[in-house]
Amino acid sequence: MSLGPEASVTDEKTAPTADAADRPGEQAIAGRSLKQIAWRRLKKDKVAIAGACVVIFLIVVAILAPLLIKLLGHPIDEYHNDALDTELGTGLPKGALGGMSWEYLLGVEPQTGRDIFSRIIYGAQTTLTVAFLSAFLSTLFGTIFGLAAGFLGGWVDSVISRIMDFLLAFPQLLFAIALLSVLPDEFFGLGPRWSRVGVLIGVIGFFGWPYIGRIVRGQTLSLREREFVEASRSLGARSGRILFRELLPNLAAPILVYTTLIIPTNILTEAALSFLGVGIPPPNPSWGGMLSDAVQFYRIDPMYMIIPGSVIFITVLAFNLFGDGLRDALDPKAR
């Protein structure tokens, strides 16, 4: 039985008093758990709910990418010269808005004629995979090291804190560019696309854990002096039980909130690396790579740049709005 702050809020309905039982028509007051309170707050935040709907939609699209492309698009590396204006020799898409039509929902690429819709869908699959798994890696390392530093203290806290300071001061982007430039394109027979995805997850996740590690360390330093932890110690609880049954449940809310807020940062980092040419290797699509290819056409065909740029903007905005709403909903001091 946990003696933490959550014990003060009950999930059960309070039993009716004798006075309430004597007065017909009066109902007993029902207590609400922290989860119920947070869910009620989150439901009232329409902006956060809208962001969550966009996030869920993007996840479904990324999962169903092969099916959606089969039904509504074309293979990602298939050239369609018939959709380009070859008579004038410009190689630009036929028609307005970058060649948008029922056959090509988001138009085609200049000079190649590849379907932008298909490449955006596959780019979503790549980008969200990198963002979610690197956020999970950062959260895992940050929680472990932050708990250890805050709970054990002493030289353990000093060593972990200095490591976090070093990684926070390290030029992450420059290191990632240098590392990705010299690594081979394939690992363990995974192919160029998923090999580079694995490297990006490792690099972004490794440099991201100190941020959440500092938050977890600070919260642990505060919680370990609370009464419920002292009560557990006085009852003979071991360190493992205090960590995983008393401290970790009370750290779940800030960890969850920070994880949702670090995902959009990872999306931008992956897009930046692909834009600089060291992310997902071509011809595999990525949103940052599409932006990089569109630079030379932004004056004569701006839609090629607007579409991937808008997708990145909407995705990052949706995650930030949902993360902010989740933070407000899980704040016990908020009304």
UniProtKB/TrEMBL annotation:
Composition bias, Basic and acidic residues: 10-25
Pfam families: BPD_transp_1 (PF00528), OppC_N (PF12911)
PANTHER family for the chain: D,D-DIPEPTIDE TRANSPORT SYSTEM PERMEASE PROTEIN DDPC-RELATED, OLIGOPEPTIDE TRANSPORT SYSTEM PERMEASE PROTEIN APPC
Subcellular location: Cell membrane
Domain ABC transmembrane type-1: 124-323
Annotated CDD domains: TM_PBP2
The keyword Plastid is annotated on this UniProt entry: no
Transmembrane segments: 47-69, 132-156, 163-182, 194-212, 255-282, 302-323
Record key words, sorted: Cell membrane, Membrane, Transmembrane, Transmembrane helix, Transport
The keyword Repressor belongs to this UniProt entry's keyword annotation: no
Membrane topology: Multi-pass membrane protein
Major location (coarse): membrane
SUPFAM superfamilies hit by this protein: MetI-like (SSF161098)
Protein family according to the UniProt entry: Belongs to the binding-protein-dependent transport system permease family.
Spans annotated as Disordered: 1-25
Name listed for the protein in its UniProt record: ABC transporter permease
